[in-house]
Amino acid sequence: MIPRICLAVATIPAMAFLSCLRSETWDPCVQVVPNISYQCMELNFYKIPDNIPTSVKILDLSFNYLSHLDSYSFSSFPELQVLDLSRCEIQTIEDDAYQGLDHLSTLILTGNPIQSLALGAFSGLPSLQKLVAVETNLTSLEDFPIGHLKTLKELNVAHNHIHSFKLPEYFSNLSNLEHLDLSKNKIQNIYHEDLWVLHQVPLLNLSLDLSLNPLEFIEPGAFKEIRLNGLTLRSNFNSSDVMKTCIQGLAGLKINQLVLGEFKNERILETFDKSVLEGLCNLTIEQFQIARFGEFPDDVSDVFNCLANASVIFLSSLNLDGLEALPKDFRWQHLEVVNCKFEQFPALKFNYLKKFVFKDNKDMNTFIEINLPNLEFLDLNRNRLSFKGCCSQNDFGTTKLKHLDLSFNEIITMNSNFLGLEQLEYLDFQHSSLKQVNEFSIFLSLRNLYYLDISYTNTHVVFHGIFAGLVSLQTLKMAGNSFQNNLLPDIFTELTNLTILDLSKCQLEQVSQRAFHSLPSLQVLNMSHNRLLSLDTLPHKPLHSLRVLDFSNNLIVASKEQELQHLPRSLAFLNLTRNDFSCVCEHQSFLQWVKDQKRLLVGAEQMVCTQPLEMQGMPVLSFRNTTCQISKTIISVSVLTVLLVSVAGILVYKFYFHLMLFAGCKKYGRGESTYDAFVIYSSQDEDWVRNELVKNLEEGVPPFHLCLHYRDFIPGVAIAANIIQEGFHKSRKVIVVVSQHFIQSRWCIFEYEIAQTWQFLRSHAGIIFIVLQKLEKSLLRQQVELYRLLSRNTYLEWEDSVLGRHIFWRRLKKALLDGKPSSPEGIEDSESNQHETTAFT
């Protein structure tokens, strides 16, 4: 019993000690940048951690439990520049809580239920530029002690309980204030006296955001003669009448940018009357933006009349029609129309418009010509438009265009070479389908173009002059297209100023040796996601300025050592990751090169082997050269043994047939021959042999007895033995019928080679060549000896004509009679034949 009591007594102080420990002692903050940036989010801290270096500049303490900030809470971090205290359950901030933070520029207090805020809570912040106090139970700006923060540029007090828009007098000290966010508060009315401080001390760079406040009334003249950089009023009005009244209350305001509209999830107005914006005629507006009014008037000309002198107009998420009806003398210089609905593309006619952005719009199919004589910048991307003809001055009504973006559209038919658009500098067609690109040099006139993107345009490059004329081009992106025969040809001849070239995902298998010879300024080349099998660096040798080369995601197995020497010396980054590297001794030099060039190779550690099987998935850097150090003597002996065996086999094979011929010559040399000639021919020429050769020689006068394999070879005997014993040994002559089929037949060539040996052993000319058809020299040269014999000796040529046939048979029979034993019948027939020949001649 006593030991248990002692154990309990000993345990109590230990538990008490552990309960006093805070999580910060064993749950360290994440060190984002050593000694500079620390993230201590959601670590259940109850006090400021003391294990962070004093040199920290960025500190995130959000989502902890720092309910009370005492004086000098952060004095241990004098270099602090950014402090995030979001949702730390802070209720009390004492005087001088941030004292000593002379370099702090951003303080975030979002989501803290502050109940007690001392008058000197923000003292000691001489460099503060951004203060975020969203959702901090703030009820009035008067009680917010920030009047001394003269460097403050941004004040965000959104989502609080502020009822009055009255700007305290201390705002006159905030001469650097640029942005005041009062959105999502309780402000209903704005009176002249609320803006008294702005009348006394104008803040010309100030932008106000009053969105999501339930505005009901703005006193007329409250903003008169006030100059603001910006004013945002979104989802503020519960009816068109209230909105109309409040806009009229803005009379006399001079503003750089006015934003009206609603938010996607905060729609209030059900209707939008065209008279709502009439009050804008009493404002001086440089830029105007209106967004997300579902029911927009059909006649937009009346809606925008009061904005005729504005310079910049933004229209977003509206149902618009009739823009083409707007007067062309509107002084708009910049018009952006984004995510709106149209029945058809608006055929605009504005005399002063210089920049037109029309993107992500819906319900249109075809581009319609516009007339904008001063237009310099045109962005029509992501509209799913089709262009029946592109591109020329007639399409856009201008000759001043410098920027043209037609990306992410449908079919664009290129039937013009940019006539009248010679000033273009930027051109983007990516993810649109280009037609007729290969029919002529479509870019020939664009000598000022420095950027061209035709990526993923279904372009199949066939025409080598596709980029002719682009002498100033610096960036060319053509990923996701294809080339004829999957070969990159020499198509960049005139692009001598090119610095960036993207050829990724082009299904390339080969690169022409002169593909890059005219690109001395190229710095970045992307060849990734192709089908290249080897790292052929010779084409890249002329790229003297190349810095970045990407060969990732190809099928590269290795590279020869001599090829690696052609890499440009200027190269700083080479990416070979995700290839099919073969980690075998055959590629030992390449694998060693990879180890030596780790600094050059991007992600060298991620280069893995795909073969052999035992190294699949292992890093290339793990390959060891010692595995290749097999005894050179063993290799040499093995190679020599294989070589000797192979040579011996070849000699035995050759000697066997020669021996058979030699033995046969002794056996049959003194006897009479059974056949006048043995015929060597291809089985595909058998019809000619049967119908012409056999019929004319065996049935003619005198008759000749031919040895034919289909008739005279003995069944059951090997073909080679039949050829030698029945063919050569029992025949006086050999007739070789040469044709294209003959040259391509292995058996025919074998028989011909035996015939040469047979002729050598007989010591007299016994081979008669018949060329059945004219042969291409390239095909004939495949059999060198046959080619030489035909070049040096007389042969017969078959001609299927009356005269040609007569001469052919007379010459062939004469050759066969040479050496034939004479007989009275034969002499008689020969004389008769001679008589017929003389008579015919």
From TrEMBL:
Membrane topology type: Single-pass type I membrane protein
Superkingdom of origin organism: Eukaryota
Major site of localization recorded for this protein: membrane
Gene Ontology cellular component annotations, sorted alphabetically: early endosome; endosome membrane; external side of plasma membrane; lipopolysaccharide receptor complex; perinuclear region of cytoplasm; phagocytic cup; ruffle
Swiss-Prot/TrEMBL keywords: Cell membrane, Cell projection, Disulfide bond, Endosome, Glycoprotein, Immunity, Inflammatory response, Innate immunity, Leucine-rich repeat, Membrane, NAD, Receptor, Repeat, Signal, Transmembrane, Transmembrane helix, Ubl conjugation
A Gene Ontology BP annotation from the UniProt entry: growth plate cartilage morphogenesis
Region called Disordered, residue ranges: 820-841
PROSITE patterns membership: LRR, PROKAR_LIPOPROTEIN, TIR
Keyword tRNA processing: no
Transmembrane domains' residue ranges: 634-657
Family designation: Belongs to the Toll-like receptor family.
Name the record gives this protein: Toll-like receptor 4
Annotated source species: Catagonus wagneri
Gene name tied to this protein: TLR4
